Amino acid sequence: MTAQAPVEGMPDDDGGEAGQGPMSGLSTRRRWTLIALGLLRASGIAILLVALYYLVPLDRPSPSSLVVALVLCLLVLVTTMYWEVRAIVRARFPGIRATQALATTVPLFLLVFAATYFMIAFQDPTTFSEPLTRSDALYFTITTFATVGFGDIAPRSEPVRLLVAAQVLLDLVILGLGIQVIFGAVKKARTS
């Protein structure tokens, strides 16, 4: 493939304008191929994580294993975020890599809380306003993350309310700091 002149308004790397970034020397077809492959990989990662959520046995929790599982999952999340930022900084096409990082870290974050809510509700169905299936727990987590909280499912016990409050605070951190770090890594990679 031969490099073509940048097309006005054509993204060079799902963020910058043509002629300014790592994709500027690529043909239009190659750029769109890379973007499509990046989006396909990002979608595949998200689908795989959701599939794992539905397949992993979560119906045998004890109170101590629940706390251990939550702490381990949050450590996995922090480690994943660290490696994703490193991968963005080192990537040839950091904007595409950032999309993949978001497709990994955001679903992982949501699924950690969904799994936790499911295990809590499985252990004691009275902790929420209704018994939770995995889908209910995921729905509750997403509506809490999106701050819409329809109210059809609500925590009833004080510890679960505190956990939901912690999720809301972490949602703000993920949305604010997490996205800032990812896009900062993209900017750093583009300038180095």
UniProtKB/TrEMBL annotation:
Swiss-Prot/TrEMBL keywords: Ion channel, Ion transport, Membrane, Transmembrane, Transmembrane helix, Transport
Q: Where is the Potassium channel domain?
A: 108-185
Q: Which SUPFAM superfamilies match?
A: Voltage-gated potassium channels
Q: Where is this region: Disordered?
A: 1-24
Transmembrane parts of this sequence: 32-55, 67-89, 101-122, 162-186
Is Cell wall biogenesis/degradation included in the keywords of this UniProt record? no
Check the record and name the InterPro entries matching this protein: K_chnl_dom (IPR013099)
Output one GO BP term: monoatomic ion transmembrane transport
- What name does UniProt use for this protein? Voltage-gated potassium channel
| Lineage start | Bacteria, Bacillati, Actinomycetota, Actinomycetes, Micrococcales
